[in-house]
Amino acid sequence: MIRAELDRSFMETKRNKLLWEVVSTRMREMGYNRSAEQCKCKWKNLFTRYKGCETMEEEAMRQQFPFYNEMQTIFSARMQSMLLSESEGGAKRKAVQLSSDEEEDIMEEKELEKSSVKKKKQGKASGAAGSSNSIKEVLEDFMRQQIEMEMQWREAFDAREKERRSKEMEWRQKMEALEKERLLMDQRWYEREEQRRIREEARAEKRDALITALLNKLRREDHHM
């Protein structure tokens, strides 16, 4: 999305380093920490996969490359700009079609083609092999992405499970502490009750002893009388 918004600027300059810095900054603002070089490499990968879709069936193409519609929108907009600027010459039209980064990819592909002249001479057989290799690369990239997503999901699951176990352990520790505190309070209550009972019994014994002494004294006085 960010690259699409800056596409016209990419078409108008050959030195795109500052533009990729802008893309990197916009990504950070959206919460994705990516360097300018990482953004550039990602775009090259998307561009290569988009080109590889030319030899694929439409249904398979959209399954293997989920960003095809977004890439097609960008290049369709370029084509419209190219048609509007036809009067300015073929060189201008080429600049509108491909950015400097994409031209570098094309040049790299041409160099690879020059180094494989023998394969080109094989004609249709070579073309079919190239198409098969392209599909194989797309499938390998798709499987690699699936594996990365599976690993990320497992890491997130493990993190949630670890957090759950940590919270459960913390809850159990709190419950144990509360239970110990309750038992301690019960023990203190029983101790206070026991001390109160002992004091009550002591007072009762003193009271009984005093009453007995008074009764004995009264009896003695009556006897003397």
Automatic annotation (TrEMBL):
The keyword DNA-binding applies. The keyword Signal does not apply. It is found in: Nucleus. Keywords: DNA-binding, Nucleus, Transcription, Transcription regulation. Its main location: nucleus. CDD domains: GT1. Residues 90-132 are annotated as: Disordered. Residues 2-73 form the Myb/SANT-like DNA-binding domain. Pfam families: Myb_DNA-bind_4. This is Myb/SANT-like DNA-binding domain-containing protein. It comes from the Eukaryota.
